[in-house]
Amino acid sequence: MKADKDLIGISEDSSTTVVKPKKNTGNTIFLSLLPFLSVLTIIISSFIIKIDLIECLKLTFMVLLLTSALVLYIRMQINILEVKLSKAIILCLYLLPMLVILLQGNPEIYSFWIIGGLLIAMLIDNKLGLLVYFNHTILLSTVLSLKTEAIIHFLIMGILISLLSNSLRNKSTVIYSSIILLSSYITLAFLMNNFIFEEGANTNYLASLFSILAVLVTAFLLSVIYERVVKTDKPSNKDMIYQTDSERLSQEGTVNIAEYDNRQQDNNSSLLDRNMRASYDLLLSKDNDLIVKIKEYSEELYQHSIHIGDLSGRAAKLIGANEDLARAGGYYHEVGKVIGKNYIEEGLKLADDYSFPEELKLILKQHSIKHDKPTSIESAIVMISDNVASTIEYIMKSGQGKYTADKIIDNIFRMRMDKGTFDDSGLSVKDFKLLKEFYQDEYRTGKVKL
Fold this sequence. Notes:
Blueprint: E1 17-19, H1 25-49, H2 53-76, H3 86-103, H4 115-123, H5 126-144, H6 148-168, H7 174-192, H8 202-230, E2 241-243, H9 246-252, H10 257-265, H11 269-283, H12 289-297, H13 299-319, H14 323-332, H15 343-353, H16 358-366, H17 377-397, H18 405-418, H19 429-444
Antiparallel strand pairs: 1-2
Helix pairs in contact: 1-2, 1-3, 2-5, 3-4, 3-5, 4-5, 4-6, 4-8, 5-6, 6-7, 7-8, 12-13, 13-14, 13-17, 14-16, 14-17, 15-16, 16-17, 17-18, 18-19
């Protein structure tokens, strides 16, 4: 769906203001400490296991370089550190596996160290998890002087772990994903040993297989605990305070930063819930500043955005996903068009300026099939809504009446399934089927008007 070319002009007279978040100096301190603590871990471990000075210096310099690359990636993706407890998780899951590699006997067989990269991929960011896993693999191969075949084996497993990380934390797909990983491990072990196992090595491979299984089970249980204990308290509204007038603030329960900080110290959870509700109410309000700007820019873009938001919200409600998040994702998925041609980049800049929640920013980034694959159910829903609505509208306008809405939707869902578009989204097979039926019913019965 293309927006009008003429920029009508964006109203500068707005009653909506935004309190932007303060810079987090804690992030800078953390990123500065991580290389130092990594080097310190290597030095202490080398002293314990009595590695000679030259070998210790070699390991220290290598870990410093690897950790610097890790820090650079985090700096480029600074939103990673906005995930709850991310700094503590990264610190523990990066340093502890180093200790395991250096101090544990036979870490190449009892591969408990892989839980570091795996859990970071599951809880924070799969690319960061893959980078952590690679760093640990390089350290392992250096310490043990592993054969090339063994290194390739571990690296391939790391890529698979990263690709399947989101599926491994989902109850509906964890068993299937674990079977893929374990069977891949056996197959790779067989291939890397020229289709035979070395004499007397069967027990070692069996022990390694069970250690990986133990890691997968542990990682899944920890991810469940994290979701229930940590993420149930949704991200605070401290960095996303929309203000119109004092009467509206009091009615909708939104408070200023100082008031919020004071009440937060008193653990006033009921107020926090009302604030989160009010924030999404403001995002979904038709007189929100950004919604108004979209409408002023293009009536066509405005109608499309409202349509995708409504469709996505009802689809999310059907399968028990976050209805408000999906609806807001639909409203703002093309908001960047009011600024420039690269609407995803521009949309993310606006999202930062208006302090959107991180999960909403992800939808802006992941809703297009030409960009990142969805990593949340709500991102997948907005992508489907946009894909279905735009395709049907185009085909109907082009006069290709031989294609029914049912057929178009069926083809879209089959294509997305074949290409693995939603592999990392957390959508179950049941969700996928329900969503297809939902969209077909919407267009078949005429509930949706183009």
